[in-house]
Amino acid sequence: MENRTRELFSLPIPFIRTPGKQRNGGNGQNKTTKAMWGNVDSFIHAAAEWVLECIVRYDGGKSFDGGFQREIKNNISKIIWADSRGFSSTINRFPALCVPRKHNLPKSECPSYEPYLATPTAQPQTTLLASVLKVDVALRLSGGCDAGRIGKEGGFCRFKEEYNRARYPELFTPVRRVSVILPMLTCGRDETMIVPRKSNQDSVRPKARRNSYVLPTYPLPPLQDTLDTYLNCLKHLVTEDQYKTTKAIVENFAACGGIGELLQEHLAKRKENKVNWVYDWWLDNMYLCNPLALPVNSSPGMVFPRQNFQDEGDQLRFSARLICGILDYKVVLDARALPVDFARGQLTGRALCMEQYYRLFSSYRLPGQQKDTLVTQKSNVMPEVEHVIVACRNQFFVLEVVINFRRLNETDLFTQLRKIVKMAENEEERSPPIGLLTSDDRPKWAEARTVVVRDSTNRDSLDAIERCIFLLCLDEPSDVEQTDLNMALQIMHGAGWHKNGANRWYDKTMQFIVGKDGLCGLVYEHSPAEGIAVVQCVEHLLCYIKETSRKLVRADSHCELPSPRRLRWKCDPEIHRYLTSAAGKLQRLIENTDLNIYRLKGLGKDFIKRQKMSPDAFIQVGLQLSFYRCHGRLVHTYESASVRCFQDGRVDNIRSATKEALDFAKAMIDRRASITDSKKMELLWAAINAQINYTVRAITGMAIDNHLLGLREMAKELQMDLPKLFTEKTYLMSNNFILSTSQVPTTMDGFLFYGPVVPDGYGVAYNPHLDHIIFCISSFNNCKKTSSTMFAKAVEKSFKEMKDLCVKCNTKAKQCFLGNGTHNVQNGRRSHQ
pTM score, two decimals? Predict the structure, then answer.
């Protein structure tokens, strides 16, 4: 076996202190010898044996049964096999890790852990510290520190009794930070501990708040403030008569002692009893009650940087490394030990909710006739043996990633993947493309699922898929030129049932796609998390793959591993009818999708910031100008605004179609010749400032959409007739988002995309880089009013005009000097001149 410690973590081969024989002479104390172990398996075995020997020696000579010995060895194995690149900031802040004072150690050696163990929900670093504490206490109380001072009274039995799973289950959760754990297992306190590299999040953390992770609950805006803002957002988008009608309805709703105040009072009571009063309603309204098929309509896709695979072996090596990276990432998720994200931009330094990350590999969307269900695994303490589902040639296989209490390494996974590819080639055992059912409309798939589960074989197969960590889709070559557009379409829907469209299971949150032609990406079910959590995960995985790809991997494993299991399906004629119907609908959806990936060059974040403008606000105003250029009007626009600074926060809506944006668009197009450039510049600044102001309102929980949703749903919960405010034409129009936008930035050369949310609308995801912006524009072909190509051309022209205007008239622009020279941006990187 290769030296995995060197391969995965680039750390020195660890030394472990093993008790030596009693030597006579000198001070008569036990001396230790250092033993170097050439691979991790030997190291795990030696570490476990040493801990057990210390327990027996210093705990009154008691012995333990084989099950307890295996438990210790398994826990040590989990700790050592875990990696933690990018998750080191918590440990950095607590370099001196000792045991609680109640264990009779000298006070000078024992800073208390109690502040961190006392409030686990308020301290995200609790589980990480507690996991480290588990090993530290075990070693100290079993003789790893100063056993002579501890004695029998402080022995391991007390540790085992006090830190049991019932009282402190987090102590038995695997920890990720190998560069911290290994020194604790292998070094004395007088030796130097390896200090991991700091996370870049530290740069935005206010020092006074570093250890303060208690997030506020989601606020409830004042009723009148929301209604006034509602009227202000729609006044310029409707006719004068329609506005007067709506204003009268709003005033009646807000009347003293009226229905509005009653609903607001009930919302206030709900807020007192829930961490996030709007979350459940928002989740249902946004995703779970949407009956449309997941591909294109709901599930975003993401294209990774293209890989240069020379053969099938390269594809499978990449896949094996990807699985290893995900499993390492999942260890820290299971321990709930991710360092907390901190906000940038308008709320720089505020801690953000991390719950979305923890749902990425533990959730599944179950179809329903009226409403889907988001199934999330609540407990990750000592989970069962885990597995990955591999889709290959429209067949599904169970790939166990832990066999005989040992996690498979990259070589083992490569071997198992090769077996799967070979099994998938067997035509005689091939099952129908059952994955097509998950691409159907949600009620139809729910109906089909009730038929599928009648057979016990099908139930077992469904259960294996629903409980898996994620899906790995090994795609066949797409046989088209690898352009941005073709890659995105392949990821989005697999190019149809006859290609890779059935090689998916859309209900699973994370589906990683690795094609033989080097086309790699991800399609994810949107209800558990927003794009930022997915992008952060993906970028970590790609860095992991890049680092580990430098290491040599043997072609085959020397271990005898059981073959992966093919999932069997028994399909009667009724199921075949559902499959035929789903295949036809998917093909029609594919033919109806109009996607355009446009890279706007010569304009990026760098230029916009040098204009002293917000990049996001600048882009949003540019999109409004582009839409006006295409359609001669503005429409109700959705821009997702993260509200993660609150507990269980997801998003609210930034209504970007402001009065100021409309004035600017008219000045640039309708009255182009009659308005001076300096006046246009004033209007641009007004539009950007209006956008920023509403953004701040949204990310601080004061926007209108979630509040209006809450008022509407509370009326339903109280079994009241819906107030006229929520049934009239203006409100219905205000929730028909013809332009749906979202910023999804990446640091790599990849991009995320999604479909429009209404039949006559556009979906626009944009990814701003330093010197260019990637726009992913989608619409439907059957709508004659929309065209993704037309919109992309409008984007090109609009942003060029805005750039030229800024260069000519923006007196606030700042010329950036570094030393005595300015800087240019080339290929997304700054360079000095």
Answer: 0.75
What distance in Å separates the CA atoms of residue 494 and residue 439, rounded to the nearest whole number? 11
Within 10 angstroms of residue 133's Cβ, the number of other Cβ atoms is: 23
Question: From CA 72, how far away is CA 52, in angstroms rounded?
Answer: 8
Q: Which of 526, 636, 769, 772 is catalytic?
A: 526
Look up 540 and say whether it is catalytic: no
- Return the structure tokens found at 282: 């928002």
Low-confidence ranges of the chain (pLDDT < 70): 1-213, 378-385, 550-559, 814-833
How far apart CA 628 and CA 658 sit, in angstroms, is: 13
User: Measured between alpha carbons, how far is 402 from 141 in angstroms, rounded to an integer?
Assistant: 30
- Which structure tokens are listed for 554? 């043997």
The widest CA-to-CA distance across the chain, in whole angstroms, is 103
Close Cβ partners of 482 (under 8 Å, ≥ 6 residues apart)? 306, 517, 518, 519
481-524: pLDDT as tens digits: 999 999 999 999 998 888 999 999 999 999 999 999 999 999 99
DSSP string across 206-227: -GGGTT---PPPPP---HHHHH
Contacts within 8 Å (CB) and 24+ apart, 813-819: 813/610, 813/611, 813/612, 814/610, 814/611, 814/612, 815/610, 816/610
Residue found under tokens 């059912």: 437
The amino acid present at 684, given as its one-letter code, is: L
Q: Which of 91, 77, 78, 7 is nearest to 47 (CA)?
A: 77
Q: Please, are residues 554 and 452 in contact by the beta-carbon 8 Å criterion? A: no
Contact between residue 522 and residue 511 where contact means Cβ atoms under 8 Å apart? yes
- Report d(CA 339, CA 199) in Å as an integer: 9
Tokens of 798: 């609009």
For CA atoms 156, 161, 167, 169, give the dihedral sign. Answer: positive
- Rounded to whole angstroms, the Cα distance separating 638 from 762 reads 11
**CA distance linking residue 99 with residue 108, whole number of Å:** 11
Q: Are the beta carbons of 132 and 94 closer than 8 angstroms?
A: no
Cβ-Cβ contacts under 8 Å for 664 (sequence gap 6 or more): 621, 624, 625, 680, 683, 684, 686, 687
How many CB atoms within 10 Å of residue 793?
16
- What is the C-alpha separation between 563 and 622, in angstroms, rounded? 55
**Per-state percent for the chain, helix, strand, coil, to nearest 5:** 45, 15, 40
Interatomic CA distance for residues 725 and 260, integer angstroms: 10
Task: Let me know how many helices (H) and strands (E) the chain has, helices first.
Answer: 28, 23
Kind plus residue range of the DSSP H or E element containing 825? strand 821-826
Distance CA 499, CA 393 (A): 9
3-state class of 116 per DSSP?
helix
Closest CA to 307 of 297, 299, 319: 319
- The pLDDT tens digits of the residues spanning 642-694 come to 999 999 999 999 999 999 999 999 999 987 778 999 999 999 999 999 999 99
Nearest to 320 by CA among 628, 522, 489, 548: 548
Burial class (CB in 10 A: 0-12, 13-18, 19+), 547: middle
pLDDT at 375 (0 to 100): 93
Question: Which amino acid belongs to residue 97?
Answer: L
- Give residues with Cβ within 8 angstroms of 161, minimum separation 6: none
Helix (H) or strand (E) holding 358: helix 355-358
Q: Tell me the C-alpha distance between 725 and 255, whole Å.
A: 13
| CA 379-382-386 angle, 5° bins | 90
Over pLDDT 90: what percentage of the chain?
62
Lookup: tokens for 238: 């409707």
Which of 187, 103, 193, 109 lies closest to 151, judged by CA? 103
Q: What are the tokens at 171?
A: 């102590």
Rg (CA), the chain: 29
Burial class (CB in 10 A: 0-12, 13-18, 19+), 241: exposed
Distance between start and end Cα atoms, the chain: 50
